[in-house]
Design goal:
Order of helices and strands of chain B: EEEEHEEHEHHHEHEHEEHEHEEHEH
CATH class of the largest domain in chain B: Alpha Beta
Radius of gyration of chain B: 24 Å
CATH topology of the largest domain in chain B: Rossmann fold
Strand content of chain A: under 5%
Number of strands of chain B: 15
Shape of chain B: elongated
Largest interface: A-B, 31 and 31 residues
CATH superfamily of the largest domain in chain B: P-loop containing nucleotide triphosphate hydrolases
Distance between the termini of chain A: 23 Å
Oligomer: heterodimer
Number of domains of chain B: 2
Order of helices and strands of chain A: HHHHHHHHHH
CATH architecture of the largest domain in chain B: 3-Layer(aba) Sandwich
Distance between the termini of chain B: 30 Å
Strand order of the largest sheet of chain B: 7-8-9-4-10-11
Shape of chain A: globular
Structural class of chain A: mainly alpha
Largest sheet of chain B: 6 strands, mixed
Largest sheet of chain A: none
Structural class of chain B: alpha/beta
Radius of gyration of chain A: 20 Å
Number of strands of chain A: 0
Number of helices of chain A: 10
Chain lengths: ~260, ~300
């Protein structure tokens, strides 16, 4: 009987213990909230006005996600996806993995599921950091009130969902590249180059053909006023499905496994 | 006879011009320690990689424990343990964590983990990161991983690489015990003749992608005993060769000495007399030691 998917996933998850990818997720997710908190505490005199502003959470959300969604998140996804598969190349463990009693489909999707869960983990940690950035000054600085406005939880959840979908094409293409390249610098280099290209192509009306553009598009969609053939989340999902399919075919057709 | 591994006319090409395996038909009897012997680049690792599905099969068939590998890949891999070339261990994880990763996949009980670590002598390094292991320790951990699922067939490719002399002896003992006590069939590939000679019950000799011999080690030694080379050292190599040619005995020279094979003790005595009668001084006539090294050299030179 083949290994059930859940056990394969657990095995893949165990491999990420103390790995570079897991540290990058933890550190990278907290970077922006910690920086914002630091800047706010440094300019403590401005805090009472900021905390009583009517759209406190929305402003903080926009400020943090502008950097996170357009810049750091795509970069983090590029690096983490490449590192997860690199683990097998670096440790010469593909051959061990291929000789375990599991189907190639299970290996492919279990590893990809781990990457997706790690990206989700990044969102969760970032949001915790975001909330702490909002409330921490009230605890630390005298005279700074708690934000009067309630946390717009549902809107934030929707926004997070959009950014997560925007990350999916990046995960898929990086996964494809990193499964084919032994040298980790190659997929990371290609990923960064594509990410920069996407940022430069933001105002191009056909920019949506670039899989790395969706993080920025999710944020700037309204401002750009382009006529996309469909909703950009659907476009991102389309990219994801197509790239995963190509990646899977290349993976199972590999002549030399490990 | 039941075979744990059987390949039939396995042929593999890396390109149209480069045939790395040519009709390899291995037969590894159940319960055997099969020494798969050959010089570097002979095709040992390629054969084992094909057997484990790490290379896509081009021609021929593979069956493990009586079942087609292509049709029952997953079920058969559950019964096979392997260590191919350098050990596969996650350097950022401890020995125990490395085993836990595989334990999930083999679904074996947790008590099996310390057991296999003890078997390979790594109990003291249970919580040490594999990245800080010596090559020998990594090799042991690789063997522990291969044993984790209590396999029926264990495939070890050059398992003594990186082991110190003591480690080699311990590894040999471990394989012998597993074979004797648990009836485990073991395939060990090696270019170290002495290693195979000390351990194997059966052997297969591969050279330039072709299987030159397969059978029990005793058969090989017996077959070659009769045909073992005889060395004749005289003061006149040319005239010695002429005499042998007159008697239809094929011979060749090497470092100023004459070598021939397939002669009996009686023939050796008669030859000595004839050489002396022709005024040739005989310094030495002896049968070459009949060890695996000589046999191997003969086979690959034939």
């Amino acid at each position: 009987m083949p290994v059930p998917f859940l056990l394969s996933f657990q095995s893949e998850w165990l491999k990420q213990r103390h790995s570079a990818a897991s540290w990058i997720i933890a550190g990278g997710s907290l970077l922006i909230p910690v920086l914002f908190l630091g800047v706010r505490l440094y300019h403590a005199a401005d805090l009472p006005a900021i905390h009583t502003a009517p759209r406190f959470w929305e402003q903080l959300y926009n400020q943090t996600w502008q950097i996170m969604g357009a810049m750091l998140m795509p970069l983090g996804v590029i690096v983490v996806t490449s590192l997860v598969t690199q683990l097998e190349f670096r440790n010469n463990t593909w051959k061990q993995l291929y000789t375990t009693p599991q189907g190639l489909t299970t290996i492919f999707f279990a590893k990809m599921a781990v990457i997706l869960v790690m990206v989700l983990q990044c969102f969760v940690i970032f949001n915790i950091g975001f909330y702490i950035t909002g409330v921490m000054p009230a605890l630390l600085v005298k005279g700074v009130p708690y934000p009067a406005e309630p946390l717009p939880f549902l809107r934030m959840l929707m926004g997070n969902g959009k950014f997560f979908i925007a990350c999916l094409p990046i995960v898929a293409l990086q996964y494809l590249l990193s499964l084919q390249c032994r040298n980790v610098l190659l997929p990371i280099g290609i990923g960064i180059a594509l990410h920069i290209t996407s940022m430069l192509a933001l105002r191009w009306e056909y920019g949506y053909i670039l899989p790395y553009i969706y993080g920025s598009l999710s944020f700037l969609e309204q401002g750009l006023k382009h006529n996309y053939p469909m909703n950009i989340q659907l476009l991102a999902l389309g990219h994801f499905v197509l790239l995963v399919a190509v990646s899977f075919v290349l993976f199972i057709r590999k002549k030399d496994k490990g | 006879m039941l075979y744990s591994l059987e390949t039939h006319q396995l042929t593999h090409r890396f390109s149209a011009q480069e045939t790395v395996l040519d009709n390899i038909s291995l037969q590894v009897p159940q319960g055997a320690i099969y020494g798969f012997l050959g010089p570097n680049g002979a095709g040992k690792t390629t054969t084992l990689r094909l057997v484990l599905g790490l290379l896509r099969k081009q021609q021929g068939s593979i069956s493990i424990l009586g079942q087609s590998f292509t049709a029952h890949r997953v079920a058969l891999l559950r019964q096979v343990g392997s260590l191919i070339e350098s050990p596969s261990v996650y350097s950022h994880l401890s020995a125990m964590e490395n085993l836990q990763v595989l334990q999930k996949l083999y679904q074996c009980p947790a008590k099996r983990l310390p057991e296999v670590l003890e078997l390979v002598g790594l109990t003291a390094a249970t919580h040490k990161k594999a990245g800080r292991f010596s090559l020998g320790m990594k090799q042991r951990l690789g063997i522990a991983i291969a044993l984790l699922n209590n396999p029926s067939l264990l495939i070890l490719d050059e398992p003594t690489n990186g082991l110190d002399p003591n480690g080699i002896i311990e590894m040999r003992e471990l394989v012998r015990n597993l074979n004797r006590e648990q009836g485990l069939t073991v395939i060990i590939s090696s270019h170290l003749l002495a290693e195979v000679e000390k351990l194997a019950t059966h052997t297969g000799i591969i050279h330039k992608g072709r299987l030159l011999f397969q059978g029990t080690l005793d058969t090989l030694l017996q077959q070659r005993h009769n045909g073992a080379a005889v060395m004749i050292d005289t003061n006149d190599t040319l005239r010695t060769l002429e005499l042998l040619k007159d008697q239809d005995l094929p011979a060749h020279t090497e470092n100023g000495k004459v070598y021939l094979s397939g002669i009996t003790k009686g023939q050796m005595g008669a030859l000595n007399r004839q050489l002396l009668q022709r005024g040739i001084t005989v310094y030495e006539i002896c049968r070459q030691p009949n060890n695996l090294e000589n046999i191997f050299m003969h086979l690959i030179n034939d």
